[in-house]
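Duplicate of #3305? Posting structure anyway:
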């Protein structure tokens, strides 16, 4: 690909609209299969950002089913030289 380098952002649904509207949407397959969903391309402060929802559109993929290899490979194929993986964690304790 002859595009400028990008930053890959694998995040949750809270980041789905971060950085403004997508300028392109990529649906690709990798040697490890399909990533969690479409990859949205945005331009943020002059930086090309590729966003992938870790658990898919609508949070449809549970953590043990996320194809992490395919996610990383897809971002690399689209030109991501760096990746950010912000996340929120929740406890498994029952509320009293």
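Output from current build:
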């Amino acid at each position: 690909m002859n595009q400028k380098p990008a930053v890959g952002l694998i995040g949750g649904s809270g980041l789905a609209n971060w950085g403004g509207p997508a300028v392109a949407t990529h649906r690709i397959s990798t040697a490890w299969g399909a990533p969690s969903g479409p990859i949205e391309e945005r331009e943020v402060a002059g930086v090309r950002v590729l966003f992938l929802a870790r658990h898919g559109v609508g949070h449809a993929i549970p953590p043990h089913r996320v194809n992490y290899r395919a996610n990383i490979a897809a971002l690399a194929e689209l030109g991501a030289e760096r990746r950010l993986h912000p996340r929120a964690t929740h406890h498994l304790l029952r509320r009293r």
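Confirmed duplicate; merging threads. The mean pLDDT is 87. The radius of gyration is 14 Å.
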